[in-house]
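WARN  no MSA supplied for this record, continuing single-sequence
INFO  ligand: magnesium ion
INFO  echoing inputs
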Amino acid sequence: MSDKILSLRPNRPSLIRHLESYRVRAAGNGKALGLLVIQVKRGQEFGVLFGFRSIEALMQELAERLAGACRSDDRVMRTGEYEYAVILPELMNEGHALLAANKLLRSLTTPFEIDSQIITVGASMGIALFPDHAKDCDALLRYAELAAADAVRSDVPYKLYVPTAPEELAGSWDLESELDTALDNGELEIFYQAKINLRGGLLAGAEALLRWRSPKRGLVPPNVFIPVATRSGQIGELTWSALNMALQHAAAWPMRFGPLSLSVNIAPTLLEDSTLVSRVADAMGVWGAKPNRLILEITETAVMRNPDLSFETIRGLKSKGVLVSIDDFGTGYSSLANFKNIPASELKIDKSFVMNMLENPADASIVRTIISLAQAFDLQVAAEGVENLETLRSLTNMQCNYAQGYYISQPLPAAAFAQFINEYVPPVF
Ligand code: C2E
Ligand code: MG
Ligand code: MG
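INFO  complex generated
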């Protein structure tokens, strides 16, 4: 192993310690210190496809390549499952950091061999500098990671950290106080998206999806306000109110297909709320929800962050007749060792795989793998993001149990969804 590699195991505290000693040195001789964060594109997909051992071998080779492309006093260190950091001490200026980024990226362009398959590994990089961007090492790492996330979003190879404009921060404060008013004034609404049984195509249930009809901003999607509510702590109130509204609506749904299931999303932070199980049970009691009809969707990433605690919460929910679906499955990395004891009842395959499964054989393999995994562990499996008939057919052939997506229906306001139930005709597939 190259002596430029500090560690092949993710170890953030140790990275911060190393960074600190470089920072002191840079501050002492008036130089800059650069930190590059490199995220492997489609890391989770490779994880599912190739398994733990092969991925570890790939990550090791990646580290060697990065080390090979570095100057002699640069240092490489693993910071996450699919993430490396490169410390660039004694930089003259920003331009040198960009040159280094280019060189490191080039080192990854030669394909890798993994399980006798040749694959190309893409990466997104974020760059932050001391003292220009951050004065301490925690902030330096955070900013480099933010820049890397920005590179992923913008689909560019790398981004230099851009300090957040004060007015952007003010924007999120506005949202916070507006959200308070929204809760009080009943501006939050729930849309419902149908979920069908792939054996016969009958309606099986619906997922409740929050919308905020803001008088000032129009219809605000959850991707905008859920993160704000999570940061501010408003997420609890938001969730309990959504759960109650949804249970109330579901109690009045037409019975054409018998009792339908209702799926409600639970934010990751609420898994640590000790009142979750009793609050859910109370709400079910109030609205007369039948056992095994309420499904709580919790993301794979949230569950696997602390499997012991999550499993205990899920078992608690199960004892009250509530089912749990693991949402966005495939985007977090569940180890089989953890997975085998999972008390959930359903895996919900992330839409990013389903939407591209016809064009992209790797995505199709992931979908197929998740379906077999579910079958092996006696779990139901649902696919979200079904946008066309071909995908519906293909999922049916793969013996997926449920499907949800624009091909079947967009999320609809409550009244429109009740009408949808009354008029629904199964597609021919
Ligand atoms: P999710 O739970 O994975 O929900 C699926 C998202 O995919 C929904 O977006 C849905 O409208 C969208 N979708 C469904 N079918 C298709 C399709 O065929 N193609 C495409 N491109 N997209 C499709 P939405 O409603 O914007 O929700 C986004 C995320 O916001 C949800 O992802 C969920 O994580 C979160 N969210 C929504 N409502 C709530 C809530 O009440 N509580 C919490 N904690 N999170 C919520
Ligand atoms: Mg969901
Ligand atoms: Mg999802």
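The radius of gyration is 24 Å.
INFO  checksum written, moving to next record
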